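Crash report, auto-generated. Payload:
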Amino acid sequence: MNRDVRRAGALAARMAVALWWLAGCNTGPGASAPAASPNAVPSSVREAVRVATDRSAARQSTVTLPSGERLQRVSLSNGFSHVVVAKMGPNGRPSISCVDSAPAAEAFLAGGSQGNGQ
Amino acid sequence: MKALGAVLGGTLLLVAAAAHGKANVVIVNGDPADAGFNDPTPVAPVGGNAGTTLGAQRLAVFQTAAEIWGNALDSTVPITVLSHFQPLACDSSGATLGSAGPTNIFASDDPTFDAGVPASVFPRQNTWYVSALSQKFAGKQVLSGTGTDEANYDIVARFNSSLDDPNASNCGGLRFYYGLDDQHGNLIDLLTVVLHEFGHGLGFISLTDPSSGTFPGTPPQPDIWAYYLYDESTGMHWVDLDDPGRQASAISGALAWDGTTVKTAVPATLLYPPVVRVTSAPASPSAVGDYPQLTIATFSGPIGLTPIAGPLGYGSTKWGCSGLGRLDSLDGQIAILDRGGPSADAGCTFVEKARNAQDAGAIGLLIANNTSNPPLITPALPSGDTGSDITIPVLLILQTDGQTLKAAVGAGTVNAEIVRDRDAGIAGADSEDRAFMYAPTTLTVGSSVSHWDTSAFPNLLMEPFINSDLTHSLDLTVPLLADIGWFSDGGSIVVPDGGSGTPDAGSGGGGGGGSSSGCTSAVGPPAASLALLTLLAFVRRRRAV
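Recovered output after restart:
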């Protein structure tokens, strides 16, 4: 009984930590950056990047190999994704950037280009 | 709806690719009938892509990317990529071209091992790896690679079909190029973008949250990248830093990759940066000095360690466009021409300027930018022009530098040279050949940490900006993947050819001479592989001296 209680407590603690971690992931790498103006970029691209890079649905489980080796597994249906965004440069050539957060996408789309052009 | 039902019913089409590669990267077509990869819209074959429908051409690009990666990696377990080509966001500001990433990460949880059980198949315990690499270690398919649950696959990829919608003006004119020959002109080379995104899915990704420095998992434990990310300011690897330390390092501007294979490959991949050096200007002594902020045209002739020297000459027609008449002789001179033309609709391409300057006898061409925003771009070829006749160096310089040099030329003789600057060190790496990672000090465009730094020269596949001068080479990506565990059981890699400090290396093209796939696979022990890498690097360095 005590063992079961301890197990339940440990499980609860692990779940709490998991929720904390997942919440942390959800803040994204741009969280420490200044908040971007919501009007700087139309919302569809920013929102698409936010969804694609959202890790809040990640779930952790255990897998055992035939050898007996136990693996921890974190799954995320959306994937630990990076998103490629593009905009057209003033001379008709695209600029392309790979981002991992909505603020980074917004900074690229609203800001100066570093891609190639002509 | 009916087609979607078919997909949800699990009738996913498996398309095997890279049957001859060391790894089998399998593109799983997750699209419904008549859409995405199954779009029946007739199209003409283009650039080596024989597909005659839009869907077939899209699929051929994905399969080519799978084949390139499959030939470069080693695994006995199929790597599955659930792929979609579907409408994604577009608006007046731009578009999402696509996304991809690993759907699972694994870490060996050693405590369940009993005495006598063979050691873990994972190189490091309690360390996160992406699933494709984890399954390679296991030698067994842990993920089913089937069904509709995206978590059953190693990688999920979604790309934007809206760019092909003839009525989708809201994509701002952005279009994919489905050819396989890199002749994309002003279009977006889909193959390059897919290669980049697959790279993330195969392990070119830091799993640490850079905004907090927190490792993934419960309890948090490092990913394999943490052992190789090296903070130059503290001299510590991420695995040895605490969360605040990693958080600070991610925006330090001083982050590098400290892996043996990458360090060995750097001298053979990256180049000393080019510089325009004004050696004398009697009438304008303040103009003497180095002008290092420039880009090399993708079609430029080679620039080596031997200076290309001569007087500067400002083109008689200023812009060098054919429509403005012939340029006066520039025999033996390094020409200066202005970007653009006398009016918005009277300009010409970079390559036309280069062709005219070369025909006028110039030994090099500096194109002065006509704008400060952006300060530099990489001059590229228009679609259908190979630029193979251009033999002189062609560089774009800052608008302000152009103004300085033109003023100096107007005042008197200015002698200059174009050369690779050995004193500046290899572009994109530190003095120990650690390649810099992208860790901008403030939030900026592009994502941080999981890319090479933009100072790398020539441009690399896994920089945050997917530059138009990339050549479908995997360049330094495969050495990094080798550092994290690919090839750890006997595969070997060969560094890309065309290395860097060689006297005449580095055609101007940012591609810098990588092989078509960046690497080839061959059976051999890791020690032999490293020996080969070391030998190549040694030879190239000796040649550079």
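Post-recovery validation: The two ends of chain A are 73 Å apart (CA to CA).
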